[in-house]
Amino acid sequence: MTLARHLGAAIVVAAIVVLLSIQLSAYRDYQLAEVAAYLVAVAGLTVLIGLSGQISIGHGAFMAIGGYTSALLLTHLGWPLALILLASVVVSAAGGALFGVAAARLRGPYLAGATLMLAVALPTVADQYQHFFGGDQGLSVAITTPASLGATFPPTRWQAWVTCASALIALILLANLARSRVGRSWRAVRDDEVAAALSGLNVARLQVLAFVVSAACAGLGGALLAVVTGIVAPGAYTLTLSIALLTAAVLGGLGTLPGALWGSLVLVLVPTYLTNVGTSHGLSSGASSSVPIAAYGVILIVVMLVFPAGIQGGLRRLFGSAVDTPPALSRWRVPFTRSAGTSPPPPLRPPAQGRENQEEGPS
Amino acid sequence: MQEFLEFTLGGIATGMIYAAIALSLVLIWRGTRILNYSQGGMAMFTTYIAWLVIRDTGSYWAGFAVALAAGLVLGSVLEVAVVRPTENKPPLNAVIVTIGLLILLEGAAGIIYGGQYRSFPAAFSIKGLKAGSIGLGISPNDVFTAAAVLAAALILALVFRYTSVGLRLRAAAFAPAVARLLGIRIGRVLTLGWALAGLFGALAGVLVTSSTFLYPNSMDSIFVLGFTAAVIGGLDSPLGAVIGGIVLGVVLSYAGGYLGSNLVLVYGLAALVLVLMIRPTGLFSSATVRRV
Amino acid sequence: MNRSFRVPRIRALAGIAGLTAVAVIAAGCSSGGGSGSSPSSSGSKKLTASAPGITASTITIGSHQPLTGVAAPGYDEISPASNAYFQYVNAHGGVYGRKIVYKVLNDQYDPTITSTDVHQLVLQDNVFAIFDGLGTPTHLAVVKYLNASKIPDLFVASGCECWNETSTEPETTGWQIDYVREGKILGKYLEQKFKGKKIGYFYQDDEFGQDGVKGLDDEIPKSQVVARQSYNPSVTNVAPQVTALKAAGAQVVVSFSVPAFTALLKLGMLKLNFNPQLAVSDVGSDPITLSGLLESFAKQGGAKVSGNALTQGIITDGYLPSLGSTSNSWIQLFTKIHSTYLKKLPLDGNVAFGIAVAYTFVQAMLKAGRNPTRQDLVNAINSGLPQGPSVAPYAYSASNHDGITGAYIAVIKNGALSQVGPVQVTDTSASGAVTTDSTSPQAAPASGIPSP
Predict the structure, then answer these.
(1) pLDDT score recorded for residue A307
(2) pTM for this structure?
(3) Is A27 inside a domain boundary?
């Protein structure tokens, strides 16, 4: 029945999105499309980190795989859009499997280090094989609005429809997966790897599967973003992107799908807003263009200190069960230290104490 | 042959910088189990302070000393103000907070000093050294860099092993509950750990910036490679940090020189994955692998 | 007790409410760029809102520039310099009485952000045209979009040949001399002056460097080129490349690099005790920028050496008058604008660039007419523009959107360009000859504003 519930919710949301996309200006449609593209990637990442307990600061690399796949297919083979998106998912999933297998034994900061290097190293491949990948210039991605919608249909609205539809499908699948046996197995491994292994779960295979799923989502997000922005180039997939995805996932509320939405909204809307505030106060270019950057850093710090469970956690505290997610998803614990495989004991205060304070929230 | 020599020596010189960053990461990890993503940003910021001092007083060593002192101060201040509140919270929060710190430091540097590339002086001559008629590919300044990092690491090791402060640092990292029972002020020890890490970062920043330029993002790539070196060497092990740094520097130098500079980072990734597949917790870590 | 039956509906509704609230707030926040046209003043000629971005009193144009990040150094001076010239024009009557409003967004040299920025400028701020978009990979991200939406895309700040596709991209024009032409002009000079000597190339591994090398190869015999080393702008260690150039025995090194990498090249050469003749293309040779980057190294060991010592003797080319020619009318205009509006910036090649390209825009706007449409502006350029501050004529026509067609060779002496020989012009084909320019440069108008 989970599937039916999720589908129902999705249909309602889809209707709202269609209405919204018609009401909003072309620029807001463009931003809506951007949010949806990032949402898919962030949702995959939040599942990886929140549910399966593995960290990745390199998901920009999988977005790059998805983006370049779609650009190359569009340029050389001219496939229809749906097929291209599907192909991007498959190729990035393969990349995720490859990396997941290589990194299967890594935990905590060591996994973080490997993903960091991946994020930084992978885009340089485009510079090496310039003839194929377009080098620093990149490849352009241009899709056309289907003729059936009429010649005056705004392209930004079509992009918003495509991206939101893909995001909804991805979210339904992720939500179902989280509620399924696989999701429960992930949480078991996350909470206590040894106990999970003892009860017969194949830990390595589950870890790799988590990477495959999240890489597939990132790949889809990368392909959608390429469609929206119209270009793939190494400069679009720097470490900044991977860090942005991570901060979006944690800021929104780790392990929760609504959290992925809040994080994506922050990611797309806040920097533009800060820049506009800056320019409207007469700050011109030069040193003042660093003000939005500094402000974003402050926001990250403050939100994490005030709402340790992210925005979704903060909303839960404020509005109680109305915004509650199913108990299983809300109880996220990332044993960053415990599964790290290092011998010195966990940090200074007994971790349980901290968590008890958290769970008190909605009373 | 000359090329090989140039690549080797140059790689060691660069590797010492990675070692310095790796050391500061290891210091913080051992003490607080936090990965400090703002380490590069802290180093950049203290280097800017050094640049200001050098510009106003004309003395390189004054700037050098001020940078190290600023590193100590910055590390302590950040620990108390921003990192301490994340102690009771999920560990990933500390990660996001340090990332926020990094972004804030880069933005602040851009606001205060502007984004333009600035040149930063070297302590000694940057003209290449020669052994007879063979060019060595390193300069007196490179030799100073390597020596400074090694000396600092040695002093740190001596402090850890032979002083009571060092003993307290080790106790707090290894058995915090017991240490507390014995009257050790854990909070102060943590601050000291971060201060030392700030010092090492500042040292790395001042040493490396003379061969590139000073700008708000100047330490980004160096941080990534320093992090990789720390992971290769094992996050628990200061010795591993130094060796990891040197190994990484030399491997990347050979790879860039003989195989082409485009894919240098890919070779770095390959080296990292190779090491981690053999030893998932780094070369020198003291971790035991749990098998079920 | 399983709460989960109630939850999803409420969860969905909450999500919807949240989304709607956000969207409403966001839509409400969007102030929209160009304000509605104010009633035209009772002047003799009526100014109308003849196109998006044009009102009776303002012209709004937009640009994307790397104001922070890797590509910012030096280039972040260009847009304030252009804006300074626009303010000067606004203070002296504007363009037919309209004030120019110049909105610049920071794209951090990231093509994804460029795309977002340009969408914002076009869709939200309703700009009349995009002006001086900077960066080859970044601007390539938005060229198709701008042409599909029929937005004039003027004077792209990049020397790539990509901006001269009049059949498929009629809205886009270049301005500065393109890199192929530059390569040919530099190449011909080097081939003549250094006959028989070994030449090595050092170039950025993208369209910029590759176009430059293409031009060089058109003039320099292949047998003379002993090494070709490229660099990636995100990797600041160029020791391997310099080692290879030295190992090949290059006596002359030609560099198509940005200023930071020119400086790194020079430093690398110092470290290896390698001292060939250096030739650098215009983009990477601004003496003030370079000596600023090399300053600390020139002061090595307490010696009272100026940064200029390390740039002395570098061969380069220039397409604007040299900043050292203080009696030149254009330099006097640049100096006037700089001292009035740009005191915080050094008066260097980037500032000169910004003012010069802004001057060209005003020329085009004046030619486009009193109440221009977007097409009027493009037509104005297609019918050719007078030379302005450039030392060589523009190539603008309906079938050619290249900008400046020539440059002079110069040597850096005491921190400024010292011209060597006459201005040379050429085309972008492999066989087109490099010839001396027969047109004479124009003097700057006394008012500093072009005549309509």
Answers:
(1) 84
(2) 0.83
(3) yes
